[in-house]
Batch of 3 targets.
Target 1
Amino acid sequence: MRKGTLLSWLKLSSNLAPNGSEGPRPSSDETGRRTSATRPIRMGRAVLGFGIVGACLVCWGCRSTPVSGRQQLVLVPEAQEMEMGVTAYKEVLDKEPASKNAKYVELVKRVGTRIAAVAKRDDFQWEFNVIQSETQNAFCLPGGKVAIYEGIIPVCESEAGLAVVMSHEIAHALARHGGERVTQQNIKNAGGKLAEYVLKDQDDSKKKIALAAYGAASEYGVILPFSRTHESEADQIGLKLMAEAGYDPSEAPKFWERFSAAKPAGQEQPEWLSTHPSDARRATELRAALPEAIKIYDGAKNKFGLGDRIVALDSTNVTEPPLTARR
């Protein structure tokens, strides 16, 4: 549904005279009395209308995430998500320099191809690229468009560590977290417009306080907690993906411990203010999920264990022979 549809519907539902006609103009006293009397009616209509439309959207847009089975609301068509993913990916690759490290590029494509093979999304047009940057980051856009920044690769230490990062990012695309976030933001915006409409007869100071309270409540009470849910869910989905792809899942909590140790002291903000769970929480939750992931790993068709060790960030000496790992 387009962003303005809810608001347009609410605007139409608030017309008191048919066909937009205003009818005879009442006296000013009568207008005041009528405004006071009809304010609760108008407010009730707006809330009822919003509720009806919201209920219809929930019925239409509800789905379950793969692997975890969580119920989610996504109102963005997946085809549109994938188109947006292609466009955004091209913009990033046009702007950011591609890595000249041939071994990094080969390593990322190798690990990515193995994870994609068990992702059960043959309709994705998978791409794996490495960006020349010290940034410790990675992403996967809808449709399987993956980018890994060079800065995160040394923290991985091995193919399995890289599989932790890549499977986590791929899990976001599989679970359609991007579409869910767009949906949540649109609902938040529509709720804000509804609040403005309901409060339009209040004085400015009360209106500002109420709208500020709505913004803070929706951001810290809904948007950020949902974002942390997405990250934890991607961790759990990614853990199973890397195990099924043949990489030792016991590397996952170790990666997050290394990632935390690599951060400058005091950089991590309080969890309730963050879009991500704390690294310590992620490591703990992943370690708790290892028994199930190891069962998946034990049943994998091919086992690569920890794979090649990543030992340096130069163009010639990047990997060593495979590490000893769980077989």
Target 2
Amino acid sequence: MRTLTTPEIDSKSKNTLIISSSILLVLVVVVYYPVLYWLVKAHWWSNPDYIYGFLVPVFSGYLLWDRRDMLKLNQLNGSYWGILIILVTFVVAVYADSQYNKVLKGMTIVPMVGGMVLLVGGWHAIQWSWPAVGFLFFMSPLPGRFANLLSEELQAIGTSVSVFVLQTIGLPAVAEGNVIVLSNSRLGVVEACSGIRMLMLFFAACIGTAFYLRHRDPLTRILIALSAPPIAIIANVTRITVTAILYEKVSQELGDKIFHDLAGWLMMPMAIAILWLETALLDRLFVAPEREAPIGLGTTAGVSIPRSKDQTPPLGNVPPGRLDG
């Protein structure tokens, strides 16, 4: 496949690059305006679980700026592979429109933008921008089938772990499906489990943190990116446990208020705190070894060994013609 070579980037070529990129960006906005309007109206604005969608393009722009040291304008070589990706993505988007599948069309934004980046800047531009382009995936909600599958599994885990915690601290609790039976009341995990519904938000936070910490070792970043499900479970179990304690020790009315109103807003700060603790713990566990200086004559492990004035120096340190005896 041929490439569009650009040996040197002068001011005129730079302006042309900026203009062409801006035109392609405007085309993306125009083509995807209906689905973007649907995302804002039906999810970002009206659903508190997806309000983070407003921050996704902003954070993607920050990632581009943060990685600006990796972008070398004289290495931008546009590739015709981008046209192929754009055409395939366009076909998928048309099919999604025909099926009235707005979620699928929303997800095609990522390969469409990636194809345009490849067309304009080539593989060097992809190497620079792929975290920002990939992070745009979190603009769209998960398809209903996958969301329901994840919700069922995580709700069951949250219920079982919460019952275990309640029994451990001495409160009577038994699980009946996704309902926790207490001594005087029943707590339904299915009815209000925004900790489960906010799983995409937790994934966005964890993967965004992994992208942000690009100078850390790869293992630390992988562990942070994969920690979204455990964080969601811990946050939700904490919420359920506190609510059950309020049910038993205070009143069901107060427990419902905490469970439905206040706790939903506290889930994200709690998740960020857990993520911060995880990052601090990984920094303690995976410490890069310091480089040691070479061990020379007269030293041990980089520490000099004192000698008395009349001590004969090692043979290798005696100048020629100065051998004693």
Target 3
Amino acid sequence: MTTRKRIDVFDWARAVAIMWVVAGHSYIFGVQDAGFSDAVASIFIHQVGSFSVALFMYLIGYFMARTNLTVGAFWKRRVMRIVVPYVVWATIAAVGDKLLKGGIWKDVIFKVLTFTASGQHYFVFLVLVFYAFYPLFKRVNLRLSKYLAIFGILASVLWVSYAEIVQWQVDINEISIVKGGLLTYMNPLCWVGFFLFGLWAGKKGIVVPFRKIAIAWWYPLLVFSLYFFAAVEMIFFYSLKGYVVAFDLFKPLSVLWELASIPLVLAMLERIPKGRFSSWLSRYGKLSYGVYLSHLPMMWWVWDALKVTTGSYILDRFLVNMIGIFLPYAILEFFHMFSFTSRVFVGVPGERKSSPHVLKAEKKA
């Protein structure tokens, strides 16, 4: 028999993932100007957080598989949940950038429409592309979803392998040309595999994929090994090329590490005991989309306005990270108190009128 309840682990997963997204943005920016030891430490920290986007894509695929809405109802909900908050925060980011750096007001509209108002907004466009195929994915059965996941993951690894070869051949001064730039900016195609992995898990109705493997004693060692060598590969790349290519996480070892981390992270989160901390994580997870949209310009505007430094690159980045994690969240908590501001800035009903989102729970044997 199947019961229906909210799956808390997914709220926790959103919270953990967005915090690591912020960390990735905090530590990697400016790494070219840091000393070698600071750059190495930043790459190791950034590489840990690279699992976060893969986990987000997995969750998007999972929820799409579990949704039974009509196409019209699905898009109505997505517009309110995704598009409206994006337009609001993108406009704020574009206007702020215009006021701080100058330019013309026409640029504000252009940046909002092209998802370039802030560095992380391209991900919103990618998600909307996946949502456009909802009518097709809705018809995919369990067997086909499995083959699509296998194909998507293999294609992702092959794609980034080819992209890495090109990156090694392209000089930093040539990275924007078609040969290097096109491959670099098309690298998000590797996320298709993570999305299809989540689609398969959702069709199958499992919260933690490959749970028996994920809880085995040797699996964390395997995942850590993939992470370590993926980071070493990036450091080797950095030491020889002298810079970190945009979308640096897209390398074969990184893709494998991110893929392997999904079952492990979900299995670890399942073991979190219910309490104040888990309740706070759930709340952060519900507001995570707003944090994602707003954190990048907000943390750098505040940091630049403070005009302070500890003298340590790593510690400075840590403080920026704390701003990015907690300042947007505090502001969104206030917006979440009221129905209108919650829908506009967060994309969810206000606290007083919110109703729990239900999903089919994992079938118990």
